[in-house]
Amino acid sequence: MPQLAPYLSFDGNCAEAMRFYERVLNGKLEAMMKNSDTPAADQLPPGNEDRIMHAMLTAGELVLMAGDAPVGQHSPMQGFTLAITYPTAAEARAVFDALSEGGRVTMPFEKTFWAEGFGMVRDRFGTPWAVNGHNLMR
Asked: For position 90, what pLDDT does the model report?
């Protein structure tokens, strides 16, 4: 069966973002390759050498991939939200709070009719998250 994984685009801070997500999501960085480490390194426009060509993080069944856009070609992330659900509201709250550091809370973490805890945040890297804890709709 195919696996669907989000692929995030950053503007030169992919490595920092993926290390942050590794810590916050208690995951493991499986790959982190700079443009300069690829066979196409000699074809890169100047300033792209240290940008990340590809990164992959796993956290349980979650797979999150990312890379840096070429210099001058990045567009802010929009039109989607990464929804993540934890078995308990306490676990979800801890992740929500960590993602909120330096970010912008768009919906405070609180009890809803579908979850013991839910909140939305755009983290400091511009990634939008919806964090659920103890889904009541199952």
From this structure: 97
> Which CATH number goes with the domain that contains 93?
3.10.180.10
**Do both 44 and 87 map to the same domain?**
no
C-alpha to C-alpha distance for 122 and 52, rounded to whole angstroms: 22
Give dist(CA 23, CA 7) in Å, integer: 18
Range of the domain at 31: 7-68
Residue 1 has pLDDT above 80, yes or no: no
**Strand pairing partners for 65?**
7, 56
The answer to whether residues 58 and 32 belong to one domain is yes
Q: Are residues 36 and 62 in the same domain?
A: yes
Q: What is the pTM of this model?
A: 0.92
pLDDT reported for residue 41: 85
Is residue 45 within 8 A of residue 53, CB to CB? The reply is no
**Amino acid letter, residue 6:** P
Residue with tokens 């300033």: 47
Task: Please report whether residue 45 resides in a domain.
Answer: yes
CA pair distance 100, 122, nearest whole angstrom: 7
pLDDT band of 7, cuts 50, 70, 90: very high
